[in-house]
Amino acid sequence: MSYPAARPRRLRQNENLRRLVRQTHLTVDDVILPLFVRPGQSIDDPIGAMPGCSQMSIDVLVEECRQVAGMGIPGVILFGIPDEKDPVGTGAYDPKGIVPSSIRAIKAAVPDLLVWADVCMCEYTSHGHCGIIVDGDVDNDQTLPLLAKASVAYTDAGADVIAPSDMMDGRVAIIRQALDGEGFSETPIVSYAAKYSSAFYGPFREAAESAPQFGDRRSYQMDSANSDEAIREVALDLDEGADVVMVKPALSYLDIIYRVKETFSVPVAAYHVSGEYSMIKAAAQNGWIDEKRVMLEALTSIKRAGADMILTYFAKDIANL
Ligand code: PBG
């Protein structure tokens, strides 16, 4: 059938027709809210480049989580900012550290809210890299046991999901083994499988105080020009026991989300990262774009590409719609 018999505009005539043929629906069921926590009391410090987000102390974080759960958001992912950093990132796997303490407090107050623990070293190391430094680069195999230790500490504190974002080779396997060994065989791993070395993380590094003090992360995060490599990374993580695989960032990597979903048919998460959020906020504050419509278009496109869930700083805005 071709024009004039075919007239695609027929099904776009009014909102009710459009509703009936709409294929992608974005709801509160799809989102996870990232939160930043630091030691102290009554701290609620706004993050300059991320309007609407702040660094919170545990007391404020717990109230935020109560509200988030009340809005129907399925879960939060925590990023900790310790008081002290050292070369081996002790704060990341200290069972009394900021993230385990936060998890315990949230779980005591709002037990049903899913608490995801991001597992990485960069917020805890004095050099800001995601692992142990040997000869000027992150040493993969020396970092692995520390990631496993952190994962056990978080799960022991009550974390529902472990989400390694470090990009060391073999970390999913060693984390799975460590969790199983401690009796946590039911704790899912959401691996940041295809995590690209991206300038879109800029605002996050201010928020988490985790900018590398020398060099960059290109020796462990992926080159943004690559696509087949993402498929290999995802295959490895699934083989090692990942339950959900993540693509990060999201909007510049919709082709990767699509390929991963098409290739593996497993649950796929996408992280709509800090820079993607900040750009929308900044343009909207200047009156250059309609924030709500751009947010919906961006997040819907991520879902349309194949993501089953989206980590986004807009999670509360989605819940409010
Ligand atoms: C930790 C981590 C980062 C992000 C999530 N986990 C930063 C990085 O790799 O530098 C970025 C999230 C965002 O930009 O919103 N490795």
Number of domains: 1
Amino-to-carboxy terminus distance = 39 Å
Q: What is the CATH architecture descriptor?
A: Alpha-Beta Barrel
Q: What small molecules does this complex bind?
A: ligand PBG
Helix % is 25-40%
User: Strand pairing plus helix content: what structural class?
Assistant: alpha/beta
Task: Write down the secondary-structure element order.
Answer: HEEEHEHHEEEHEHEHHEHEHHEH
Tell me the radius of gyration: 20 Å
**How many β-strand stretches?**
12
Mean pLDDT: 97
Main sheet specs: 10 strands, mixed
Which residues sit in consecutive blocks of at least 5 with pLDDT less than 50? none
Quick recap:
Helices cover 40% and strands 17% of the residues. The chain has helices at 15-21, 58-70, 90-93, 98-109, 140-157, 171-181, 202-207, 228-240, 254-264, 274-285, 291-305, 315-320, and strands at residues 31-37, 44-46, 54-56, 75-80, 114-119, 132-134, 137-139, 161-164, 190-195, 244-248, 268-272, 309-312. Strands 1, 2, 3, 4, 5, 8, 9, 10, 11 and 12 form a 10-stranded mixed β-sheet that branches.
Helix and strand topology:
Layout (H helix, E strand, L loop, with lengths): L14 H7 L9 E7 L6 E3 L7 E3 L1 H13 L4 E6 L9 H4 L4 H12 L4 E6 L12 E3 L2 E3 H18 L3 E4 L6 H11 L8 E6 L6 H6 L20 H13 L3 E5 L5 H11 L3 E5 L1 H12 L5 H15 L3 E4 L2 H6 L1
Parallel strand pairs: 1-3, 1-4, 1-12, 4-5, 5-8, 9-10, 10-11, 11-12
Antiparallel strand pairs: 2-3, 6-7
Helix pairs in contact: 2-4, 4-5, 5-6, 8-9
Ligand PBG binds next to helix 7.
